[in-house]
Amino acid sequence: MTGSADLVIVANRLPVDQVRSATGEVAWQRSPGGLVSALEPVMRQRDGAWIGWPGVAEDEVGSYDPFTEDGLTLVPVGLSGAEIEEFYEGFCNATLWPLYHDVVAPPEFHREWWDAYVRVNRRFADRAAEIAAPGATVWVHDYQLQLVPQMLREMRPDVAIGFFLHIPFPPSELFMQVPWRKEILEGMLGADLVGFQVSGAAANFVRLTRSLVGLRTHRDMVMTQDRRSVRATAYPISIDVQHFEKLAGSESVIARAAQIRRSLGDPERILLGIDRLDYTKGILPRLRAYSELVAEGEFRIGETVFVQVATPSRERVQQYQVLRNQVDQFVGRVNGDLGALGRPAISYLHSSFPQHEMAALYRAADIMVVTPFRDGMNLVAKEYVACRLNDDGALVLSEFAGASEELSRAWLINPYDINGMKSTILAASRADPKDTTRRMKALRRTLRDNDVAQWATNFLTALEEMRQLQ
Ligand code: GDG
């Protein structure tokens, strides 16, 4: 059976959230994101469909049929409560996520989690096989769905399949820990084009297909047993730059940014961190570096404040609960020891905000501090740069974020080196404004050259080339 969609996006989440009214009626609310805005125009042009999980357990709401929302065809895939635990919270976020991020937390391996991963990947692949038109393009996203390319190819050899990994892909030394390592590689090799954030990740993948699957490779090409060529290349993802520029330049955001500064007591300097509350983001070492600078008198309370926004994330996974307690405790201690009445050293918010509030924070902040231990890309860093319309503001950025390859004019740090981080934050805060402007101008140029629409075009064009080659 084939369907009629010419371009099929397969991602863990649908670009909508399900909301339930008081009377129990189900409605959908768009969840804005760079990926959706980048793909929306191509999807409309090409009769596109988006397959994904609506974010709630199926046993709570029953199953649903495909529907159209704002001109986009959305195809929900249901997950039961047990599958959310074993597939999503388990294999995706307690096995793959820590393993792919340099094992900054120990990954757990459970056979029943793997079984759920296979089962759920099969469900997504079946759905894609049903709705893809003959010869369609199917673009599969991220670590939750690494087996889909191969499963889909077995059912639908006529379609072109692309896969993009949003998070890092680890070196062999770490990847070899996975009991199902070969199955995962073979799953990804079902694609014609496998995209990564950085070239190092693509090289890790190519090397593993040679050493573990025994395939022949040449540069970024892998020759599979069934005589197909699979290309593995870096396509660094980006943001909708114009959208953020427009937002940051709007009167309401400018006014709100001024209001934020006032409510913080008009300090000389605002440092800002915005992250999902995740142990990969290096929130604790960043706050430690800052608090030591305050304790040593380099920054003075009232003159300088650190605003840390931590968006609630994966709250049912144990390691995330541990991190939340650590951050709560650390911030409490620093503010207790170093803060003054009504003037905390760290202004900490554990909540999520609408995008215009994020833009106002980016506008208000003199120094953005982004310090992940490991990050596929890090869009927050790019959003900050996009919002600095006056070419001012300093970006302090971890060299372990994918973004550091493009944003090399940022103030780069190693999050494991607290002293190095302290001296770089100080240098950024005391830099000659001319130097700050030169750096920000360079960062903004780089960003404008590769926005998210360009990223999607690059990937889809390369996928089309691979189709011609096969
Ligand atoms: C994964 C990879 C890769 C955050 N809090 C709020 C909010 N956000 C938005 C940010 C940004 C996005 O969420 C976070 O993206 P990041 O790239 O920083 O990090 P991950 O969530 O870990 O994303 C990462 C990315 O995928 C894309 O490929 O770059 O490496 O880990 O856009 O603005 N948005 C709103 N309110 C919040 O409170 N509205």
Layout of helices and strands:
Blueprint: E1 5-13, E2 16-20, E3 26-30, H1 34-45, E4 48-53, H2 58-61, E5 67-69, E6 72-76, H3 81-100, H4 111-131, E7 132-141, H5 148-155, E8 160-164, H6 172-175, H7 181-188, E9 193-196, H8 199-211, E10 216-218, E11 221-223, E12 229-234, H9 241-249, H10 251-263, E13 269-276, H11 283-295, E14 304-311, H12 318-338, E15 346-349, H13 355-364, E16 367-370, H14 379-387, E17 394-398, H15 403-406, E18 411-413, H16 418-430, H17 433-449, H18 452-469
Parallel strand pairs: 1-4, 1-7, 4-6, 7-8, 8-9, 9-12, 13-14, 13-16, 14-15, 16-17, 17-18
Antiparallel strand pairs: 2-3, 5-6, 10-11, 11-12
GDP-alpha-D-glucose binds next to strand 13, helix 13 and helix 14.
Report what the structure shows.
By secondary structure, this protein is an alpha/beta fold. Helices cover 46% and strands 20% of the residues. Strand 13 (269-276), helix 11 and strand 14 (304-311) form a beta-alpha-beta unit. Helix 1 packs across helix 18 and helix 11 (283-295) runs parallel beside helix 12. It is globular, with a radius of gyration of 23 Å. The model has no long low-confidence stretch (mean pLDDT 94). The structure holds GDP-alpha-D-glucose. GDP-alpha-D-glucose binds at residues 166-167, 237, 274, 276, 311, 352-355, 358, 375-380, 383.
